[in-house]
Amino acid sequence: MSISIAVVGAGQFARAFIPLFQAHPGVREVAVAETDPERREAESARHGVTRVFASFEEACASDVDAIALFTQRWTHGPMAVAALEAGKHVYSSVPMAFAEEEIAAIIAAVRSSGRTYMMGETSYYNPAAVYCRARRAEGAFGEIFYSEGDYVHDMDLGFYDAYRYSGGERWRETASFPPMHYPTHALGGVLAVTGSHVTSVSCLGVTDKRGDGVFDREVSRFGNDISNATALFRTADGGVVRTNEFRRVGYPSPVRESRFRFLGTEGSFEQLATESLWQDKEKAVSVEELLRTMPSTGLDDATLADIDPALREAFVSGFAQVHDRTRLPASFAGQPNGHEGSHQFLADDFVTACLTGAQPPVNAWTAARYTLPGIVAHRSALAGGAQLPVPDHGDAPE
User: Rounded to an integer, what distance in angstroms lies between the CA atom of residue 59 and that of residue 50?
Assistant: First the structure.
């Protein structure tokens, strides 16, 4: 049994996943859908793709089994619903959606279609999350009562060029994407360890002062002038989670843009840019060597040529010692990897779920728990930090 996949949006991120889908033994064909003719031709030639579509709609109307969305982040919700209603399995880049209503619509479409939905949240396989998930399973934390997840990615370190690449002449309008609407690299890694979900949030935002037309309410299609935001969440297990989404920050995000901290009654884990520590009541031990990823060489220099150097680490980071590579297809050997070793696991999760009917780890219900709290957090920031309830769609059905 095998599936066919149409990759929608032939931008920089897609080129890291097209080879993985092509190499997977459960995929018989990979097609590309892209509205820009030059980009469509260049990327299909780069990967030897023989079937192309001029639009998302063409891909949905075709006989492909699955749609993989690598489009701009505010488009994911409506596209996912349309693809599911067209009878396609859906892999979506993050975030799941931009609005609460879109998240509810995706879950409803998954229920009615019976198709697989998965959000490609890289933090689920972040080495810190993998390590801490194992320590929690063995009881080393005791009770985790406080967690932190930060996504610290300065606009100067690659984001300007990324938005220019995807946004064209009017890129400033969308470069102001509200930080808390992109919460999954911070919150997802925390919830992937604790297994809980958010029940309420209070968030404070910092108004941007750069004055370059980005994070300018008069320019922003989102009416957003917040570039840095901090949220405090209450979780269903009685714990507390704090996350930071920073876009103006003196921090080496290419080294470690997502970082985590878990404090438990018996043990704790803390992480900075270049160090990771496991601590209990007697000692503190560096576990950095377990979590450090080795370079991945699956993408050649020509493929990386037009990717900003500040973003390349996201495309070329391989596995860490804590990753269990034995579960991956043998055909993935030598293929690209990225985002701290997560790409190969994500591609395999999706294809396996489509073929077996089992829920992927980051299914629609889990994706909602990773995404929806950030949407409410941004609303809290606009209300001066008011504590707001966060709806929950429950656990995924078996």
Answer: 14
Q: What is the pTM of this model?
A: 0.97
Contact between 193 and 147 under an 8 Å Cβ cutoff? The reply is: yes
Q: Pick the residue with more confidence: 19 or 12? A: 19
CA-closest candidate to residue 76, choices 366, 381, 361, 367 = 367
What per-residue confidence (pLDDT) applies to 297? 75
231 SS3 class? strand
Are 3 and 66 within 8 A, CB to CB? Answer: yes
Domain for residue 41, yes or no? Answer: no
The one-letter amino acid code at 96 reads M
**pLDDT band, residue 192 (cuts 50/70/90):** very high
Please tell me the distance from the alpha carbon of residue 272 to that of residue 276, in angstroms, as a whole number. 6
In the chain, the DSSP E strands lie at 3-8, 27-33, 52-53, 66-69, 89-92, 117-119, 144-152, 198-207, 226-235, 240-246, 258-264, 267-271, 276-280, 284-286, 388-389
Contacts of 106 (CB under 8 A, 6+ apart): 77, 80, 81, 84, 96, 97, 117, 364, 367, 368
Residue of 384, 397, 377, 381 lying closest to 95 (CA atoms): 377
Rounded-to-integer distance, Cα 189 and Cα 174, Å: 25
- Is residue 219 within 8 Å of residue 176, measured between CB atoms? yes
Could you report the per-residue pLDDT of 251-274, keeping only the tens digit for each? 998 899 999 999 999 999 999 999
- Compute the mean pLDDT over every residue in the chain, rounded to the nearest whole number: 96
Backbone angles phi, psi at 285, to 5 degrees: -125, 130
- In-domain check, residue 93: no
Which domain range does residue 152 map to? 123-293+362-389
For helices 14-23 and 37-47, what crossing angle results, to 10°?
40
Indicate the pLDDT class of residue 106, thresholds 50, 70 and 90. very high
Report, as an integer, the average pLDDT of 54-79.
98
Residue 298 lies in a domain: no
CATH number at residue 250: 3.30.360.10
Query: CA 77: distance to chain centroid?
Result: 14
Task: Please state the domain count of the chain.
Answer: 1
Q: Can you say how many angstroms the Cα of residue 135 is from the centroid of all Cα atoms in its chain?
A: 23
Over residues 214-228, the mean pLDDT reads: 98
In a domain, residue 269? The reply is: yes
Percentage of the residues of the chain whose pLDDT score is greater than 90: 90
